[in-house]
Amino acid sequence: MRRTLIISPNWIGDAVMAQPLLRLLRDRHPEYPIDVLAPAWVAPVWRAMREVDSVLEAPFRHGALQLRERREYAAMLAGRGYSEAYVLPNTLKFALIPWLAGIPKRVGYKGEMRYGLLNVIHHDNRDKPRPMVSFYAALANPPARDVPPPSALPKPALYVSEERMAEVALHLGLSMKLPLVLFAPGAEFGSAKRWPTSHFAELAKAIRSERSDVQIALMGSAKDKEVCEEIVALVPGVRNLAGVTKLDEAVALIAAANAVVSNDSGLLHIASALNRPIVAIYGPTDPLHAPPFSDVAKSIFLGIECSPCRERECPLDHHRCMKDISAEMVWQPLREMIR
């Protein structure tokens, strides 16, 4: 049986944005099972995609070449019958794997010194980069200067069963019978993408003042725990789940949420792919580059003169693009979502 191999990006949000590519590939060749080679920290996202047959967890250290290990792994892949591979990271080391495995068709973007390793090479315009969904979906077709806009492509979609949602909520001490609002105050990219914790706290107080029945929980990795603790200190009773949930549990809990408020982060894009109502907060990044695709979504972006700068830290040291978004600006659309 001919199979397709997808080599995953290292970022959770990018993995979600790549899902429409899988949909296009499956629609074209429904008889080809699709496997994904992914880092362990991204693998739970791929397991929530209906198009994926098997998720193979990459045994490589982040950033390390590990040439001998890649040769050995490629030898294992060679026996699985792949006819094509789509290399989503732009690095040399990931392009090595399908080449070493002898996979006939190897597709990806130019990246770093990958001629020969890839034999179907796409090019992006750095001055006008493609929206992320279009960036990955373009790989399903021959290289082209112009690609379909996100509106012409399938929306990213993840799936979680009702039983799994209930199981995770029970485990975390949350009720499926009461409204649940999740905040995602962190951002792996850098502090520039974080809405101030004081604003999240004000928003929590606004929810509490009008809807005392609403459960509010904070989501994130262990790296976000300190940021979330700042919010809890200002609004006792809000649940801090940062670093408590594994990613697969976080996916299930987001699927059960009535609404999600998030910075531009991987959790935002998970919520989008689960079609949850979202208020997405953008400052240094462009909401058109990686927007939420939920049926009910509001992106808040001030578009001040210095944004989007796409920097990890505010280069002007004022962070106005995020600080000037008030809690009331977020509460207005959120109120309608939880009503």
Automatic annotation (TrEMBL):
Organism: Noviherbaspirillum denitrificans
Family annotation (SUPFAM superfamilies): UDP-Glycosyltransferase/glycogen phosphorylase
GO BP terms in the entry: lipopolysaccharide core region biosynthetic process
Matches recorded under CDD domains: GT9_LPS_heptosyltransferase
Family membership: Belongs to the glycosyltransferase 9 family.
InterPro entries noted in UniProt: Glyco_trans_9, LPS_LOS_Heptosyltrfase, RfaF
Gene Ontology cellular component terms for the protein in this record: cytosol
Keyword line: Glycosyltransferase, Transferase
Enzyme Commission numbers on file: 2.4.99.24
Catalytic activity: an L-alpha-D-Hep-(1->5)-[alpha-Kdo-(2->4)]-alpha-Kdo-(2->6)-lipid A + ADP-L-glycero-beta-D-manno-heptose = an L-alpha-D-Hep-(1->3)-L-alpha-D-Hep-(1->5)-[alpha-Kdo-(2->4)]-alpha-Kdo-(2->6)-lipid A + ADP + H(+)
One Pfam family hit: Glyco_transf_9
Source species taxonomy: Bacteria, Pseudomonadati, Pseudomonadota, Betaproteobacteria, Burkholderiales
GO molecular function: ADP-heptose-lipopolysaccharide heptosyltransferase activity
PANTHER family: ADP-HEPTOSE--LPS HEPTOSYLTRANSFERASE 2, TETRAACYLDISACCHARIDE 4'-KINASE-RELATED
Protein name in UniProt: lipopolysaccharide heptosyltransferase II
